[in-house]
Amino acid sequence: MIKLKDLLTEQQEEAESKELEQAMGAAFTALGNEFKNKEAQIKQDVKQSDLQITEAITVISVIGFILALPKMTEMLVKALSKLVNTFKKLVGKGEGKNDPEGVAKLIIDGTHKWHKAYIKGLKWILKISGTFDKAGIKGDAAQTKAAELVYYTIIALLAVYSGVAAAGAFKSAIANSGVSDFSLATFESVLTAIKSGEVQEFAKKLALV
């Protein structure tokens, strides 16, 4: 027998997931618009950069390169501001420590609809802007990996902000969500790098520290 309390909790969870999903959509649209508005500036920014990724394509190398491109970083921060604000409203800082699996489920349920679109969109922006060429990231597989690392860094920062700093909670949430395209391996690699200076700097710019 379903209790009223349980029903209300389930309805609240669905409403929160829907709100986060809508914020993801709004941020994705904003990302496209921001790039369109600043495309010339971003391309010039990339062109003037003399940096290149010479080591393996890792979270630290990709985020570090993007941080060295002020206009690219500015675009990402501005476009994602609504998503971050919505998440802060839904999940207070550190509150996920009390319910890590619940918050992990909220993140997965609220973001999975836009998962592929974000990776594809980020890959397109990094390619069209000349970032991949300047960074020396060649080949479709490497470029997809780089875009995934940017996307999962954003997801991981939302998780860490809310207090979910372990992959275990996500394993349980994935098992119960039916979502199959969430890469736990990529997420874990981002979590490993989350305390690095580059990722922390990105977190500061997103106001997630």
Describe the protein's architecture and organization.
With 209 residues, the protein is mainly α. It is 76% helix and 0% strand. Helix 1 runs parallel beside helix 5 (115-128) and helix 4 crosses helix 8 (167-177). The longest helix is centred in the N-terminal third of the chain and has 45 residues, at 4-48. Mean pLDDT is 90; it is low at 1-8.
Brief overview:
This protein is 76% helix and 0% strand. It has 209 residues and is mainly alpha-helical.
- What does the average pLDDT come to? 90
| Poorly predicted ranges | 1-8
The coarse silhouette is globular
Q: Which structural class is indicated by helix and strand composition?
A: mainly alpha
Computed CA radius of gyration, to the nearest angstrom: 17 Å
Cα distance spanning the termini = 42 Å
Report the total helices.
10
Q: What is the share of helical residues?
A: over 70%
Please tally the β strands and state the result: 0
